[in-house]
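quick one, two chains, predict together pls
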Amino acid sequence: MKLTVNGKKRSYAGLPFKRLLDVLREDFGLTGTKEGCGEGECGACTVLVDGEPVNSCLVPVGQMEGAQVETVESLASAKKLSRLQSAFLEKGGAQCGICTPGMLMAAEAHRRAGGKKTRQAVCTAVSGNLCRCTGYKHIVDSVMAALKGRK
Amino acid sequence: MRKGTVGANALRKEGPDKLTGAARYIDDYDIPGALFGVTVRSPGPRGRIKDVRFDLAFPWDQCVIATAKDIPGKNAVHLLGDDQPLLADGVVNHALEPILLIAHADRATAWRALEHVHVDLEPLEPVLTMEDSLSQKQVVWGLDNVFKDITIVKGDAQAALAEAPVVVEGEYRVPHQEQAYIENQGMAAWFEDGTLVVMGSLQCPYYVHKALQPLFALPPEKVRVIHAVTGGGFGGKEEYPNMIGGHAALLALKAKKPVKMVYDRTEDMLATTKRHPAVVRHRTGLTKDGKLLAQEVDIVMDGGAYMTLSPVVLSRGILHASGPYECPNVSFRARAVATNTPPNGAFRGFGAPQTLFAVELHWEKIAAVLKKDSIALRRLNALRPGSTMATGQVLKDSVSAVQVLDTVVKKSAWAKTRQAHARWNKDPKKPTWRGLGLSLVHHGGGFTGNGEVYLKSRAGVSIDRKGSVKVLAGSTEMGQGASSTLAQIVADALGLPYDSVSVERPDTANVPDSGPTVASRTTMVVGGLLKRAAEDLKLALAKHGGSAKRLCGDALERRFLAEYERAPGMSFDDKTYKGDAYATYGYGALAVELEVDKATWETRLLRVVTAQDVGKAVNPRVVEGQIVGGTVQGLGWALLEQCVYKAGVMQNPRLTDYVIPTALDVPDVEALIVENPFPGGPFGAKGVGEMPMDLPGPAVAAAVLAATGLFLPFLPLTPERIQAAADAAQAEKELVS
């Protein structure tokens, strides 16, 4: 089967029921996407599929024929952090960092969808992503700063 | 003069790697030739292992299997008691106790192997509650089930209670809590020219280093422990990595290949350590004005099946039992007891959240008896400079109990908010009742008593010929911000820009033992050592005309290390619990405004305001991250998080039904940083990591009391439990009328 990952055409010939998460990490070497619970509860494995955030631990790769998959590795370009990533760095949105890739992808989906620039809307956008370090305030600060386009 | 970096929001050294997915956590390492290891665990809480059966239909010839018989050294996970086997040998003392290990080249096959091994137990009667343990229904540990029994006495509490005009009693219960770091436990191990190398998710490289030596009968130089980027710890990766590290190493020894072990969420929640549940009883004597005359406190903590760190958790618990108040007569007793449940261990706060919950909520009970304001009572009795604590410690510098209390009262608009709630609650058309609650705590920084003296921590800095400076410490970054904070301290001590200082990766082959990354000690204690070492480097550099090249001479680099020295005038007696229990204390206050739904009994947090004295915020954003994150973890313990046990096994070991807060469950915590410098800390800094965890529990219970009139001396306050208490109160009322 064929799919596009971070803009690159990829083919996969293994078991169709292998989780997208494992295919990304093991077959494609993209270990930026993390596993936290394996049952779609924590959101650490969030990636974008055709622009929509999904828990890659719940998606069998067999459903990904022709899909556009984006992971955290796609956000920065040529060693330059994206505006969203820079905001996370400056506002303290990442602490231990294990939820960060999923958190960034959920926030990125919200940003691209033209989501509201209110704290409530941002909280809702990342409410499927658990963080045990930050208490969320600095994550919301980070996303808000990126949405407002200021550093 | 250059503007320093201490006090600035320096960016995390490891931040960009974490944001791009480049940071490597243990499961992100593709170790060539590595097998994947899994653990066969006890199906029951206590028994003799009769048989271990292997299904014939499974390809066991492809697996490596290790048992207790394969351990080359002593079968004990080194900690305080050395009573916990690495693998059970003949008997099991708790459900999920590790019995044997299996490794296979394919991860999925390794997991599947677990379904084809069956452990037959001859059951023995277990002890599952603290009450049964204390009454010695069965003796399951030592001679009396007691891991540790501590007393603290000051004055004559019994006599003072007999004469006190007012005596108020209360009993408080707090439950287990799961650390719920988002990265599960994981370690990898291999042998390299006769040296055992272990790498993984951990807080304390030198704990693992020390634990592996007796297990494998290896000298210190033949064991190397390397830190991988760690996805949260909260205490959960203080001592448990000794166990999983030992398991990975044993399989690697047997397989003669590298072995990686990474738990899934359910195994992590079922088998690894949690916060100690506790029962705390208070008898408090007061004057009619509310001045403390005597505090009698009895504490029992459930240690689980093995000692782990229970004695020191208990120690921190009893040392915080008074709360931040001065009382002339004190009688405290604390016991940690054994039950046949998975061992409890370190968790942010380390015994203090348990005892502080009790003493803080007890003020609400006292206030009701005296018909006085609990805040006024706290202010009347709060620790001040010159106060004498239960251990006889006289407080000198940086005592901020009243300051943080007043800050929170003001910022939360206490009186005005309470009046608004009174009006709201009178209106029957409102769908909720509203309440405001407060707590005030102190939290000792660094190891308890002589702990720091025994640790003899060493940390330092290196400089190479080009003048690059590195921080050398075994202290780990686990999200709390050690990497930036320690580099900031070194940069300012040297007068160098922040960017010119990097942090060496914690690796026992390459960094000194700066002690464990625990106990709110990294900034205060390790940061202090680093500042001294950096000052030595600065002097040495000056002697060489500021030339790093000349300073290094023929060497590639020069290292400057500092070792911990007890502050002059400090002393503590471990036997009598007299003296300076901690070098200093942080102080914090927190107010919670919430509402309780009249129909569903659900609580909704409206506002959380906290003020915490950290001495000096080396990096205010990092400090705020600790305060807000710790507060939300505490709010989870207070309102949501419930470990349900049956026959010594957690019944909800998943993030689906063990619920931790999401972004929608908590308001933005308003954190006010108070800076009352501690002369013994670097740039005046005290610890901050744990204190935020102490505050939310009692403040939430006080707010629920204010909203509903229900005094609920337990956690978590889930809708079901509030409703049950309301129903019981209603039934009692009807019975009386």
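The first strand of chain A starts at residue 2 and ends at 5.
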